[in-house]
Structures are given as structure tokens and as C-alpha cells.
UniProtKB/TrEMBL annotation:
One Pfam family cited in the UniProt record for this chain: LRR_6
Source organism per UniProt: Mytilus galloprovincialis (Mediterranean mussel)
Gene3D superfamilies on file: Ribonuclease Inhibitor (3.80.10.10)
PANTHER family linked: PARTNER OF PAIRED, ISOFORM B-RELATED
Name assigned to this protein: F-box and leucine-rich repeat protein 2/20
GO biological process terms on file: SCF-dependent proteasomal ubiquitin-dependent protein catabolic process
GO cellular component, one term: SCF ubiquitin ligase complex
SMART domains named among the record's database cross-references: LRR_CC
Length: 132
């Protein structure tokens, strides 16, 4: 059964699934397809079964997100984040603390392309666009 197929879920604007042991790529795909258009805030911190497949589903379907927190998801490389500037125009904060596979160069490139985005890197440091 898909919990995210319930009629009222389509209007959900904020969801915190942090430390949900049952949250995996299938769960993230279902939630992003069901309520991705209305979600503004999504937290998937320490959901250890999420991979790049789940992250890609969020980027593809959650275009109205303002805040995405992926703290502690150590199975994502973040290749889909290169599409954030075009696919997620409203995103203002991307939290990637303790995401050890995401390269700093990728984060810096995304911030260069999307200047109003703040990214929190592996170490908890803020990465923002700074004009030279």
C-alpha cells in the first residue's frame, strides 16, 4: 500500500521523515510523485536507505521546495544536484551535512549557477555565491 496515495496528502507542504528507518528510494519516489508539487519543506535526515535514485526523484518532482535537508545520507553522490538550478527554482537551502560522497566542486558549481541558494556542506559550513 502506498501511504502517499491518500487524497489529503496531495496538499502537504512540509514533511519531516528524519531517522525513518523504512524510508528508502521507493518511499521517496512515491512521496515526491504524490505531493512533490506542493511540498515546500522536506527533511530526510539520516534516512540511510536513500540513494541517488531517491535524491533524483526529489529533484525531478519537487520543484516548489524552499528547503531540502538531506543531512547524514551517506549513499548519495549528488549527481542530480547539477539540475537544481533549473528543476528547483524556488530552493533556497540545501543541507548536505555529513553527506560524505558529495564533492565540494559540485556544490560550488550549483551555487554559482543558482546564486540565491545556500548549501550547507559536509562540515556544516555555509556555501553561498560570493562575487569576486
Amino acid at each position: 500500500m502506498n501511504f502517499f496515495s491518500s487524497p489529503g496528502i496531495k496538499h502537504l507542504t512540509s514533511l519531516d521523515m528524519s531517522e525513518c528507518t523504512g524510508c528508502d528510494d521507493i518511499c521517496v519516489s512515491q512521496l515526491s510523485q504524490s505531493c512533490g508539487k506542493t511540498l515546500k519543506h522536506l527533511s530526510l535526515c539520516w534516512c540511510w536507505h536513500i540513494t541517488d535514485r531517491g535524491a533524483t526523484s526529489v529533484v525531478d518532482h519537487c520543484s516548489n521546495l524552499l528547503h531540502l535537508d538531506l543531512t547524514g545520507i551517506d549513499k548519495i553522490n549528488g549527481d542530480c544536484f547539477g539540475r537544481v538550478p533549473t528543476e528547483m527554482p524556488h530552493l533556497r537551502l540545501l543541507d548536505l551535512k555529513q553527506c560524505n560522497r558529495i564533492k565540494d566542486e559540485l556544490i560550488e558549481d550549483v551555487v554559482r549557477q543558482k546564486r540565491n541558494l545556500t548549501v550547507i556542506n559536509y562540515y556544516g559550513e555555509t556555501v553561498m555565491f560570493e562575487q569576486s
